[in-house]
Amino acid sequence: MSRMSRRLFAGAMLGGLVTAGGAAAWGVTTGNADNAANDDKARREAPTTALRGMWLASVTNRDWPSRSGLTAKQQRAELIAHLDTAVQRRLNAVIFQVRPAADALWPSPYEPWSQYLTGTQGKNPGWDPLGTAVKEAHARGLELHAWFNPYRVALHDDPTKLVASHPARKHPDWVVPYGGKLYYNPGIPAVRAFVEKAMLDAVRRYPVDAVHWDDYFYPYPVAGQTFDDDAAYDEYGGGFPNRAAWRRDNIDKLVRETAAQIKKIRPGTQFGISPFGVWRNAATDPLGSDTKAGVQTYDDLYADTRKWVRKHWIDYICPQLYWNIGFAAADYAKLVPWWANVAKGSGTRLYVGEALYKAGDPAQPAAWQKPGELSKHLTFARDYPQVRGHVFFSAREVKEDKIGAMARVVADHYKRRVNPPR
Questions:
Q1: Is the separation of the CB atoms in 356 and 395 below 8 Å?
Q2: What's the CA gap between 230 and 100, in Å, rounded?
Q3: What sections of 227-322 are H helices per DSSP?
Q4: Are 72 and 91 in contact (CB under 8 A)?
Q5: d(CA 104, CA 117)
Q6: Which of 52, 62, 155, 173 is 20 to 30 A from 398 (CA-CA)?
Q7: Residues 62 and 1: beta-carbon distance below 8 Å
Q8: 230, 231, 220, 232: which is closest to 179 by C-alpha?
Q9: pTM of the entire predicted model
Q10: Which pLDDT tens digit goes with each residue over 57-115?
């Protein structure tokens, strides 16, 4: 999402190991008999509860608001329109990005108003987007999951461009420039305590149904650059066998501490995470998936997503499985069973992140030019009881639906509204 979007990473981070062969082969070999079988499976009785969600991204004005500087009335009208679209598509949850980059879409005492509202970081937009979103979503029977990015500070690397009151300006030692962006350093305990406090302020103020994180922990690797956390590692890394283990422990602490505080502040509020879809390749670890991804969350983002599920530190996990069925380097049909097995018996619900944004994009493999690809995903996943729902990226595509892929999902799978799992 301009942040070479997490969604672009779903393809780009498979590195040079990705070819279009899997997609092309699927398109050629799937015949009428297979289509008939898929249609028959799609017509099965829908589950009585399932998450049907969409992400609503504010970073770089990706989904909302459509541009910065709109009036409060215009912003509110656009937000309400997205909620109404969710209802029309028979969805039951909206995952609303309210802290895109160490900022806020509510009157936070800790961080500035987001620049994506007014065009100026720290400028009051004249209304409360998160408060309105919670109220209006609930009035429509929708869950509202508040989506935060813990450590991203800015999509540029110049601290002087931040508003003077920004915590990153007051604590320059907290910040690491990397890959043309600014990040808080996850290895500093004071940073972890601060970002937890800043995010959880929203939970204290509003009856959000969930706290939601996406796939950004330590930043995605940038060739030829080093994330400079030497000083923090020297000070806090004692007792760990290596820097990687220390970094993973930093992220583990963030997850565990946030989970515990959510339960104290607002019992019943869920905690969910949507990571990049590959924990580790099987070639790296026999417990990993049959994939050939160029990025592995365990090794590159220092996020042990499998552990979080198995230990039930989180209420749900929603891996971004943004590849088509038959894609050679990361096959949807191999990743769904892998994640289902991870979630089995854990108590952590499994939802699947779906790449609606790829449908009809001419830059994508042949499978994504077919309106039925996403519907096939839901048909396939239905055979795995651990899969309790799907979330679509993102709201703009849910509305525009340029080749009818979302309409096909609704017609095949969402014939009536259902409640989300609890």
A1: no
A2: 27
A3: 230-236, 243-265, 305-310
A4: no
A5: 10
A6: 155
A7: yes
A8: 220
A9: 0.91
A10: 999 999 999 999 999 999 999 999 999 999 999 999 999 999 999 999 999 999 999 99
